[in-house]
Amino acid sequence: MDSLITAAALALAGGDPLGALDRVALREDAPALALRGIAMAQLGDLDRAKALLRRAARAFGPKEAVARARCVVAEAEIALVSRDLGWPVKALDAARATLEKHGDRLNAAHAGHLKVRRLLLIGRLDEAEDVLARLDPAPLPPASRAAHELAVAGIAMRRLKTRAARTALEWARHAARRAGIPGLMAEVDSAFLALDAPAARLIARGQQRPLRLEEVEALQASPALVVDALRYLVRQQQTMVSLATRPVLFALARTLAEAWPADVSRTTLIAQAFGGRHADESHRARLRVEIGRLRAELRTLADIGATSQGFALAPRQAREVVVLARPIEERHAAVLALLADGESWASSALALALGTGQRSVQRALEQLGEAGKVQSFGHGRARRWMTPPVAGFTTTLLLPAPLPNG
Question: pTM score, two decimals?
Answer without folding.
Answer: 0.76
